[in-house]
Design brief:
The structure holds two protein chains of two kinds. By secondary structure, chain A is of the alpha/beta class. Chain A is built from 17 helices and 24 strands. Residues 1-5, 248-254 and 507-522 of chain A have low confidence and may be disordered. Chain B has helices spanning 14-24, 26-41, 48-73, 81-97, 112-135, 141-160, 179-184, 192-210, 212-222, 224-229, 234-260, 271-281, 293-313, 317-352, and strands at 186-187, 190-191. Classes of the chains: A alpha/beta, B mainly alpha. Chain B: The chain crosses the membrane at residues 27-46, 58-77, 83-100, 112-134, 187-208, 239-262.
């Protein structure tokens, strides 16, 4: 399907583009060509300038100096609407949809089809939405609320929104970070289709295998400078990594060999209902030994995060028993669970892991203030010492622990969340997608920390949808599908094929989000 | 207790940090400016007697604003405080005049301390009701406290059929003759209500800055979900802030009843708005997670000094209202500017580190 010999016309280019923010230079004199009818992949560590460059193309930001050339004409986009008029659509990593509105309303937001400019022509919008969905091979009802869709389907709605504006250039910023394997396949088919019809696609991702699979041209950015740009021929992962971080090794955590301790955690027949009368988690039992890393692999919506929510006590509507060191847990509050030695590093750092407007220090110690308190008096001195110690141990790069945590990069924010969990001196650490949205350097560091903690005798349960991650990090792997355990593997018996097969068991790819009637009880 | 005491970090541009300091200390600067202005233009403004009277006025609003600050920092709002003031005043008046009549032809009478204890319990109980509605029944804070605003006000009216309880002089036989002392007495030449404000203010500032409870209040207001997942007992924290707000309102009810030697059921009408204004003026963010007790108290003083000073200058009450509104809006606009400058400074310092 890739045709490197065919010349793809250049639809848009940047010449000598620089973007300066107060205090930082995000882009330094970059030359970028966007090929039409092809997938132009863009890769680089967090903060390398990928997003800035795309924001310039999509009209969110303007270049400080340099030219933007569209079809041979120099252009300037003052706003996203301006860029959209020129046929440029962008799907941001964080989706910009209105969960309280229907699919059709979302697709035509601010460009509603109207009669006489007043009355919204719902029927026309619905028909056009259906046509778009057909083109994207998705059977999404135009009248369903976007909030009721799965993340993968929401992404499709975003793409449809761009297509509805006749986008000739489509920018996808980490489109697969929240998608399951089946949904990724569908997205790739859509991309293929779009490429065939001459759309120029910019594809940003941290998943390198994906880039190699889907891309026709690659551009690598490092610190605002383009370090490599060529057609995808002959490009492999070491090549990308070399250009991204300037060294040839991809430093995944090396195994530190150690013995496992006794069983420290056991779950027995955990069952949690969902809103639609079915089950998020069904009959899940497993055990964990001290020093063991247990990987839970599965697709989005397989019930992995929900299982962790039950274990940490955020959900109380489940049945089944949990044991720490052989003792049954009686407390059903998060605080009670933390006191028993369980800590969670949530999947969504921004909304569940951190309190953005509080300082780095206040975020770090939030779970363990009790240990810094005598009577009611909180010792700010001891707090500052502990924070300094953890910043050092976790190598968090901070200018001052008093700054708001939102001023940190994704990787450093994740280290703050991990520090917060570790300060409670947990015996069992639950990590939900610990590498989501952080760059490759920070990822390797997080994995190293996990290995080290396991070697120190912590039991770690981590959830991921990244095959390579689960294979290289776990001592043992559980695969979940549709709320149940569909496979269990040791380090020796796990193969990628076996994991993928187990994760697809009983799973209907791209089923409608809400198959059961809402009023069903269960 | 000024809000200008946060240590500024190294690595900031000198001009930026000077601007930041200026912005952070803005409420304090505003207070000084207001004081300077009136001491020039209003005769007798700086006399000791006037300052004491003014402080007594300010104290009432400051109590409510302290309670309100905790509520707003936790991400809520408490509209019921004005009504709690009215109801608690009526409860105090009733107890001083009638005691409790269980219906057997005799009544239980209380001394001043017991009366205060009961009144405070009433205030805290209404706060607990707010907390219950908000946490257990999931009513939005605005609506829940709007409801209790009406309930408490109605109850206050019902207690006397809308009439005033007069002559709350108390009875020496029951030990309630000291009730008047709360509003009119002095210790070391300073009114009792000011001493109470100092105690409550210091306690609240201590809770906010140096106890886990305080930290949890900020955490809940900043991100309730993340706070809960970090082990913060969100429900308890919310109960606390509304109960504390009710406690502060009860104190104000007692002080007013004692000062006037009478309790009127309409007392405290729209006090909640002044309390919110003082908190916002002091830098409390309506979206939660940000605010300081010291700032709030200064904010209450700015509002109080402004209105008393304008009265002394003979400015019409209508103009006073307009000026108060302008001051509040200006405060919020400057607050936005401060947050932008602060965020930029942090990002710059972080950028210097190279991510």
């Amino acid at each position: 399907m890739r045709q490197p010999e065919k010349i793809h016309p250049i639809g848009l280019s940047i010449r000598g583009g620089s973007k300066v923010y107060p205090g930082t230079v995000a882009l330094k004199d970059v030359d970028f060509d966007l090929h039409m009818g092809a997938v132009n992949v863009l890769v680089g560590e967090n903060g390398a300038g990928k997003s800035t460059m795309m924001k310039v193309i999509a009209g969110v930001e303007q270049l400080t100096s340099g030219k933007l050339i569209l079809d041979g004409q120099e252009v300037q986009f003052r706003s996203t609407e301006d860029a959209a008029r020129h046929g440029i659509g962008i799907v941001f990593q964080e989706l910009n949809l209105f969960p309280n509105m229907t699919v059709a309303e979302n697709i035509f937001i601010s460009r509603e089809k109207t009669r006489l400019g007043i009355d919204i022509d719902m029927a026309a919008q619905r028909d056009m939405t259906r046509a778009l969905m057909k083109r994207l091979e998705h059977d999404i009802d135009p009248d369903i609320l976007v909030g009721d869709l799965k993340v993968g389907q929401q992404q499709i709605v975003e793409i449809a929104k761009s297509l509805a504006q006749d986008a000739r250039i489509l920018i996808l910023d980490e489109p697969t970070s929240a998608l399951s394997a089946a949904e990724v396949e569908i997205l790739f088919r859509v991309i293929d289709d779009l490429r065939g019809s001459g759309v120029g696609i910019v594809y940003i991702s941290h998943r390198l295998e994906e880039l190699i699979r889907v891309g026709d041209y690659i551009t690598v950015l490092r610190d605002g400078v383009i370090t490599g740009a060529q057609s995808m021929e002959g490009v492999d992962i070491p090549w990308i990594v070399r250009h991204m971080i300037g060294q040839a090794s991809k430093d995944f955590a090396k195994e530190i060999h150690h013995e496992y301790g006794p069983e420290i955690f056991r779950a027995e027949q955990i069952t949690a209902p969902n809103r639609h009368g079915g089950f998020d988690v069904q009959d899940v039992s497993f055990s964990l030994r001290a020093g063991e890393i247990l990987g839970i692999y599965g697709l989005m919506g397989a019930g992995r995060s929900e299982l962790l929510e039950c274990i940490i006590g955020d959900r109380r509507d489940y049945r089944g028993d949990l044991f720490v060191n052989g003792q049954r847990l009686t407390s059903r509050t998060v605080a009670g669970r933390i006191a028993k030695g369980i800590a969670l590093i949530p999947e969504d750092r921004k909304s569940d892991g951190l309190i953005q407007i509080l300082s780095i220090r206040e975020n770090m110690t939030l779970s363990s203030l009790k240990t810094l308190t005598r009577g009611v008096h909180l010792s700010l001195k001891r707090e500052a010492e502990t924070v300094r110690d953890f910043i050092h141990r976790m190598t968090v790069k901070v200018a001052s622990p008093e700054y708001e945590v939102s001023s940190l990069s994704g990787g450093n924010q994740q280290k703050v969340v991990i520090s917060k969990a570790l300060m409670t001196q947990p015996k069992i650490l639950l990590m939900d997608e610990p590498s989501r949205g952080i760059d490759i350097g920070a990822k390797a560091e997080v994995f190293r920390v996990m290995r080290k903690l396991a070697a120190e005798g912590l039991g770690i349960i981590f959830v991921t949808s990244d095959l390579e991650e689960v294979m290289s990090l776990s001592d043992r792997i559980i695969v979940m599908s549709n709320g149940r355990i569909s496979g269990e593997f040791t380090h020796g018996t796990a193969t990628e094929t076996a994991l993928v097969e187990a994760s697809a068991k009983g799973h209907v790819p791209d089923a409608p989000a809400d198959p059961e009637p809402k009023d069903a009880t269960g | 207790m000024s809000d200008s005491t946060i240590p500024t970090s190294a690595g900031q541009a000198a001009s930026g940090s000077a601007l930041l300091l200026l912005l952070k200390a803005r409420t304090f600067i505003a207070l000084i400016l207001v004081l300077l202005f009136f001491s020039v233009f209003a005769p007798n403004f700086l006399s000791a007697a006037n300052l004491v009277i003014m402080s007594k006025h300010v104290a009432l609003n400051a109590f409510l604003a302290i309670g309100m600050t905790f509520v707003i920092v936790s991400g809520g709002i408490d509209l019921s405080v004005g009504s709690i003031v009215g109801l608690c005043g009526m409860v105090a008046g009733w107890l001083v005049l009638h005691g409790i009549n269980p219906g057997f032809g005799w009544s239980i009478q209380f001394n001043t301390f017991e009366i205060c204890l009961i009144v405070v319990t009433v205030g805290v109980a209404i706060g607990a009701l707010n907390g219950f509605l908000i946490t257990k029944l999931n009513v939005a804070p605005f609506i829940a406290t709007l409801g209790t605003l009406y309930i408490a006000r109605g109850a206050a009216m019902l207690s006397s059929d809308g009439r005033t309880f007069p002559n709350l002089g108390g009875n020496p036989e029951y030990g309630s003759d000291t009730f008047r002392w709360i509003g009119t007495g002095n210790i070391l030449g300073i009114p009792v209500s000011i001493w109470m404000l100092v105690i409550v203010g210091v306690a609240a500032a201590y809770i906010a800055r140096r106890t886990p409870l305080g930290r949890y209040i900020y955490a809940v207001g900043g991100n309730e979900k993340a706070a809960g997942l970090s082990g913060v007992r969100v429900t308890r924290i919310k109960f606390f802030v509304y109960m504390f707000s009710g406690f502060c309102a009860a104190l104000v009810g007692i002080i007013i009843a004692s000062q006037l030697v009478a309790a009127h059921p309409a007392t405290g009408d729209t006090f909640e708005l002044n309390a919110i204004a003082a908190a916002v003026l002091g830098g409390t963010s309506m979206s939660g997670g940000r605010g300081r007790i010291g700032g709030t108290i200064i904010g209450a003083f700015v509002i109080g000094v402004l209105s008393d000073g304008l009265v002394m200058m003979g400015v019409s009450a209508f103009w006073q209202t307009v000026i108060k509104g302008i001051v509040i809006i200006a405060a919020v606009v400057i607050d936005q500017a401060q947050q932008r400058v602060e965020a930029r400074a942090a990002l710059q310092a972080q950028a210097v580190l190279g991510k």
